[in-house]
Design the sequence.
């Protein structure tokens, strides 16, 4: 399926794809770039997407790492 970019750089996501992925007017879209394959990856940030991340990073010490980073920022 193809779409086009407007003069302002906006793209149109066809309605069939919007319905399939639950994209509404206010849905946020995450944009990632896969430079190795020259691709742009769009991921809708829907409730289902957020729930799918639940527990994914459990036990990785990310909270401690984030708190240490914030502490360093305050000290500067």
Sequence:
């Amino acid at each position: 399926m193809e779409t086009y970019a407007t003069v302002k750089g906006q793209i149109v996501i066809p309605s069939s794809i919007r319905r399939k992925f639950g994209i509404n007017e206010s849905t946020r879209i995450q944009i990632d770039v896969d430079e190795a394959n020259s691709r742009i990856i769009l991921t809708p940030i829907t409730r289902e997407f957020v729930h799918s991340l639940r527990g994914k990073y459990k036990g990785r010490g990310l909270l401690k790492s984030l708190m240490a980073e914030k502490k360093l920022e305050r000290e500067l």
